[in-house]
Amino acid sequence: MTGPTADRLDGGEWAVAATLSLAGLGIAVGSQLLVAAATLPLWYVAAAVLGTEPEAMVRVQRRLSVSDGSTDGTAAEGPISGAPGDTVTVRTIVRNTGSETLLDLRVVDGVPDALPVVSGSPRACETLEPLEETTLEYEVELRRGEHAFDDATVRARDLTGTVAETWAASVAGDGAIDCSRVVETVPLGDGTNDYAGDVPTDEGGTGLEFHSVREYEPGDPVGAIDWRRYANTRELATVEYRAERSTRIVCVVDARSSQFRAATSTNVPAVVRSAHAAERTFETLVGAGHPTGAIAIHDNDLTTVPPGTDPATRREVTGLVDELREPANTIHLSYSRTETDVAALAGRLPGEAQVYLFSSFIDDEPIELVEGLRARGYAVRVVSPDVTAADDVATRLAALERGTRLARARAAGARVLDWDRDESLGVRLRNATGEVGRR
Amino acid sequence: MSAPDDRVPSTTRWGIALAALVGTVALAVHDPMVAPAALVGTGVAATIGLFAGPHRRISAAAMLLPTVVLGGVAVVGLGGGPIRALTSAVGILVASVTCSVVRGRPTPSALRRTGEAALCSAVVAGGAALLAFGIDALSGPAPMIDAILWLTGEGVSGLLVGLVVTIAAIACALLFVPLAAVTVPSRGDSAHKARNALLLAAGIAISIVVAIAVLTVLSPLIALFEPVLEPIAASTFVRGLLTIATGSAVAVAVLALVVRKSWLETDGYRNPTVPIVVGSVLGITLPFVGVTGVGSFDPAVVAALFAAAAVVLGVGWLAAWLYEGAVVRGEAPGPELVLAAGLAGGSIVAGASVETVALERETIRAGTATFVALAAALFTYDVGRYGRTLATEVGADASRRPQVVRLGWSGTVAVVGIPIAILGLAGAAVLAPTLSVPATAGVIVAVTATVGGTWLLFR
Questions:
Q1: Domain shared by A68 and A164, yes or no
Q2: How far apart (Å, rounded) are the C-alpha atoms in residues B89 and B87?
Q3: What is the pLDDT of residues B29-85, one digit of tens each?
Q4: Residue A434 belongs to some domain of the structure
């Protein structure tokens, strides 16, 4: 909070000028009416003279809540978190804690520049009796990153409007929003096959959610006929629901030698974190009934477990992940991958499968893989453990390059989860596939 | 963060409008001509607002604009003196600007269309004024029409010249009308061929008429046809048909040229030139025909009315053009400031109209107009500044309560000075001629010095 500054906004100069002009004009044209009228502006001069600095004391409190109600700033510890595009409702309560009525109190909340206000206004002008309060309620749309709210700017004017006191009032309550995607928010993509399942698509068919009404065709089930429309217009029409299809998912773990890098000597390497994340993701997806497989990319070969939900598939995936967790048991060779390897990986993937890629993106090959898979029409989700957290120049340069690669992956159409090393996957991974996409 | 806009909040807007109404009523007490002038001003504002709508509204606005201006010129002209004309002009200004305060500033496109319509109407009104002067010079509309009908001369030669002029005018109209205005792109080629064929036919017709004219001069045999040609050449009906055809073709050709020019200059898909031109022409032509057709009006008055309207419309075009540029650059003064200036101007005009203060009805009326209108002007300026600052800092959706408090305060300051000024004026009237204008000014200086001293003391 900064100290208040008082400004005299109006000294009545304009009224003095008006008085002198009218008086001069009246004398010039010999009109006593105008000379007498010249006294009128003087009252505004007197009003400006009477203006005094208002004694304003306010308390400001802010509450943030994500619009879907899943997160409330009052209950969570640390900053409020949300996904990009989510709407956050901000309620800033301003209370007059002084003993005088604030006739003209203007408040502007310190909304971060990066967050656009999509509804309501973070500005208000109110008259507040002692202990009366007003609420600024508005909504901002989340953007990626961490955002901190500034102090609220408060300005109080006196009755005459000629003196104003302005200060930055510190705001109690919530003041920051974290908009970094976490593992559990990485949703299923839009890759589905022709089998019935529980992933809604944009096709009409059988399902639960209404999709469209089309002209009746012979052979349509009687139950799908829109009988109300028939009663009104005597025209047969068929109601279609959003078709729900099945999908298959493949967790691709980057286990090349470059993935044995760790943030520090005391941290686990990227491949171990990737294997851990893949295992948890696999369990959640299989638990949700989605056939899921795994592919490990080594320096010179691929290890594949076809998608499935049966116990045999679970055993094979568990074995593969356990092997990846023990890098000492694996011989790693220096090997440069080519586009042919992307084709080889694509050849192991079922048609219209969704791909979860676990890689630290410490080199260029994962991004080539993402772009190659996207070019072939696969929905790609990236979970990338961050191993570039050290402070030396080389690591910072590597972090910049990694950020660029992740941006390229996003630009290619992949949804990316940048997994910070300080985040505990075990705590956060509660609902790995809670959200499903649509075709 | 959403950027606050520059529109004055609604409560403040309505407060300003109320002050403007009070000031206008006060001015109307002094001079009743302010009331019809205010109606004209409201009509001007409504007309400008119509220009922001679709083409039907634009054509209606273009037709209304010259009509409203003619009414305004008539109102100001009927004032009978410069003071009343000035007061009426102030009434028009105050009413139109008050509408801008309430409804918002006109958009740049509406201002541009208003200017275009004003320019077009000015040209047509100028032509109407010339026509009225001609009627006045020829002592009535009938001789004027007669002169127009026989403009190409009498006899067979005059008929042939008229034919040539008519065919040439029709050919020009055919040539200038854009094909896109009469056909669709898929039929463009066939329309092009049809137009060329019509132009060829017009050329052949002109050639035949010229040939007949040559034969009329050179060949004695043609005299045999004189009994047939003379009645046709002397027929008023035939000359009327030719004149109507020529006039219509010239009008279509001019409209087509304007449309061609405007289409080349426009950036948008929709071009309101046609409704503007048609509306403007009708807006001048219909009143002119109505006024001259009645016959009871002096042609000289009609000519002066339309000439003055042409000048006002021309000035209006210039003002609209300048104001549009200022609005686009963001340099236009706020309507509240203009309104305050208008009310103050009306107050000064009312105050200057009374030289000697005496306790009589005229002085009371002038004093009421001067003081109340000036108080309204001061209130409008003060509250207008407040509202604009509030809009800049908070936005146009600011809550009502602080605005009402501020309006009440400023209104109190504006009103409290009126009875004191009236008391001072009554004292001046009682003491007159002892308390002369310089003495009154001395009192003002003394009061000013007192207030200034108080101000310095409080500082």
A1: yes
A2: 5
A3: 888 888 988 998 999 999 998 888 888 899 999 999 999 998 888 877 776 777 888
A4: no
Beta bridge partners of A124: A107
Specify whether A339 is located in the same domain as A215: no
Q: What is the structure's pLDDT at B411?
A: 93
Mean pLDDT across A47-67: 84
Tell me: the pLDDT tens digits for B337-350?
Answer: 999 999 999 999 88
Amino acid sitting at position B102: V
Q: Which residues of A touch B366 (CB under 8 A)?
A: 33
B80 versus B328: the higher-pLDDT residue is B328
C-alpha distance across the termini of chain B, in Å: 38
Question: Of A14, A23, A40, which has the smallest distance from its Cβ to B371's Cβ?
Answer: A40
Partner B, chain A 13-72, Cβ-Cβ below 8 Å = 14-16, 18-20, 22-23, 25-27, 29-50
- Look at residue B409 in the predicted model and tell me its pLDDT: 92
A216 and A171 part of one domain? no
Co-location of A268 and A136 in the same domain = no
A residues 75..104 contacting B (CB < 8 A): 103-104
ipTM: 0.72
Contacts of B174 (CB under 8 A, 6+ apart): B195, B198, B199, B202
A174 Cα distance to chain centroid:
17
Q: What integer pLDDT is reported at residue B177 of this predicted model? A: 85
Coil vs helix vs strand at A413: coil
ω into B433 cis (within 30 of 0) = yes
Q: Which two tokens stand for residue A387?
A: 């191993």
Q: How many domains does chain A have?
A: 4
Whether A260 and A350 map to the same domain: the answer is yes
- On whether residue A195 sits in a domain, the answer given is no
